[in-house]
Amino acid sequence: MQIATWNVNSIRMRLGHIQQWLEKNPVDVLCLQETKVMDEQFPQDAFPGYTCAIAGQKSYNGVAILSKIKPTAISVGFAPILGAEVIGDLDVQKRLIHIQIQSIEIINVYVPNGQSIGSEKYEYKLCWLRALYQYLSHFTSLKLPVCVCGDWNIAPTDLDIYNPENKQDHIMASPPERQAFEDFLSLNFQDSLRRFSQESEQFTWWDYRAGSFRRNHGWRIDHILISSWLHSRAKNCWIDREPRGWEQPSDHTPVILELDIENIAILLN
Q1: The domain 2-268 belongs to what CATH superfamily?
Q2: Of 24, 157, 226, 263, which alpha carbon lies 20 to 30 A from 186's?
Q3: Residue numbers annotated as active site
């Protein structure tokens, strides 16, 4: 089973790219972030063979999961697990969607960027991350197979930034953000890419400005985390840089996880 994540920065702008990529990489599950369309405008017919689970928002945010396997459950936002009275307005922005396929819980997240350290948006990001910790704790407490994909807007370590000097005062690399990521790992999640490689310069995002992609001035902020049940079943995880070099690309590129699983439901029983 192959599961991929990709912040496409507008599904309307990148529809052809997604179709082209899926032709070459027919993954079983594709998690998309920043779709930037309402649910009724999502181009489901453009993905034959996939069931589309969608949580859209006009012009901003938006997440979706394309799956070859029909989900047995779909939920949107924190509220179905944590309760609306607990999460307040955190579900107004469409940033989280969850599906269950063959007893695997797949969660697609688009973590807020945070704008700048100390800003109101930064505090919102930290609040959102705390809610995500509570949300994921629910699944791990049940010892379920969980795969959490998405744009986390966090570079976990200095290995994940092209020029890490003095980045502790930079959004996406501040100590509170990195601590939040460590807190997720403390739930016995594993950073899939780092399971297979400790090399530097494995980036998933390059700014559109200053020739960042050409100069490989990137950050690794897109991640796939897997719970303990899936650790030994992970065969490989890699970054596909090719789409970032296409004409009018997203500023992110796909990350792919391969799991050694044929029918997880049988294995769990």
Answers
A1: Endonuclease/exonuclease/phosphatase (3.60.10.10)
A2: 263
A3: 110, 151, 252
